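Reviewer comment 2.1 asked that we show a complete input and output for one of the modelled complexes. We chose the S-adenosylmethionine case, as it is the one discussed in the main text.
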Amino acid sequence: MSLAGSQQKVFLRLLSALRPHWQRDANLPARIQSLFAASRAIGSRDRRLHRELIYTTLRFLPWIEPLLDTDPARAAQVTAWLAADLPATRAYRAATCGDWPACPPAVAAKAAQLGADAAALLPAWIGRHCAEAAVAPNLDALHTRASLWLRLQTPDTARVLDEFTANGWTSRCAEILPSALELLAEADVTKTKAWADGLLEVQDLGSQLILESAGVASRGRWLDACAGAGGKTLQLAALLGPSGHVDAHDIRPTALRELEARARRAGLGNIAILAAPATGVYDGVLVDAPCSGSGTWRRAPHLKWTTSAGQVTQAAEKQLALLAQFAARVRPGGQLVYATCSLSRFENEEAVTAFLAAHPDFDLEAPARDFGAIRRSAGLAILPAPHNTDGFFVASLRRR
Ligand SMILES: C[S@@+](CC[C@H](N)C(=O)[O-])C[C@H]1O[C@@H](n2cnc3c(N)ncnc32)[C@H](O)[C@@H]1O
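Response of the prediction step:
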C-alpha cells in the first residue's frame, strides 16, 4: 500500500474512534490528544497531518460525515481537498486529490464544487444570534484554519525576528497593532529562546484588541475577575505599567498556577494571584466571562455541534450574574470591561443592556479605538474576517 493509502487508513480509523463523541463532547480536543497519545505508531509529522484532517472534518462535518457510511474513500478525498495546504498535508493532498481543481477559499464556491449546502456548516440558531457570522466573509473566515498570533512583550521586535529568521520562519506584524505578530510558519514557538525569555506570548489578535479598544489608563489597581491562565492579565499588567497592579482571580486553581508561571517568564512583578474572590474595590475590573465560545469555532469547530441555543441562553444568565457580582468591586469613577469570545448578541450586547438596566450607576463608554470592528448597541463586536482573528465582544462601562 502507498504511504498516502496507509495514512488514509489511519485517518479513517481515528475518525471512527472520535465519531461517537463529536456531536456531544465539548471537551473533544482533550479526547483527540489522548487518542494521539495512545497511538504511539503515529509519528510527529503524521500527527500534524492527522490533526489537520480531523479538524477539517469537524469544520465541514455535515459534508463529510454522511460519506463515512456510504463511501469512506470519498470522505477522505473530500477532507484532503478541504484541508489547508501545509508542509504536513502537501504530499498527502497531492496523492489523494491532486487531480481535483484547487480548493477555492470561499465556502460558497467549495459548496458549489461539491454540490453541498453551505448553510449546513453552522447551527441554524447562529443567524438569529449574529447575522454576519452566517454569511461571507465571516462564514469563510470561520471555516479557515486559525492563524497563530503572538503578542510581543518587548519593544525590541528585532530580537524576536532575528531568531525567527534564523529558524527560517516568516511572520508579519498586524497593521492595526504592531505589537501583534502573525507567525506564518508551522512552528512551536514555545521551543524558542524568545518565548523562554518572556519576549512573546501566544494570544489571538482579536483577544489583544479587547483591552486596546477599552482604552485602559496606564496606571491604577485592577481586578481580572475571570483571569484563567492569564492571556489578558499579562497584557493588562503590561498596559498598566510598573505603577499599576492586577489582582488575578479565577475558580480554576490550575489555570492560576499557569498564569503565575507566565507572569514570571514575562518578568511582570505587578500581578498578584487571588485564591478567593476579591473583597476590595478597584480602579478597573475586567470580566472576561465564560461563554459559549462561538467566536473560537475555527479553532474549536466541534463546538458548532455540541452547543445548543439553550446553552447560549444559560451562559448569558451566568454572565449577567458575574457582571453584577464583580461590578460591586468597581470604585465610583472606575472602569468595568466586559468581554466574551462569543458571537451571540445574547451573551454580548443584550447581556450588557440587561446589566445597565439593573445598574443605573453604570454608563456605557464609547470605545477608545474600534479597529474597524462593528459597533453594536452596547459594545464592540470583533468578527473573524476583517483582521483574520477569532470572534470577540467587548464593552467598556464607567461607574458614576
Ligand atoms: C474566557 S475564560 C478567561 C480567559 C482569560 N481571561 C484569558 O484571557 O486567557 C473564562 C474564565 O472564567 C472562569 N470562571 C468561570 N466562572 C467563574 C466565577 N464564578 N468566578 C471567576 N471565574 C470564573 C473560568 O474558569 C475561565 O477561566
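Residues 37 and 170 are 30 Å apart (CA to CA). We note this here for comparison with the apo prediction described in Section 3.2.
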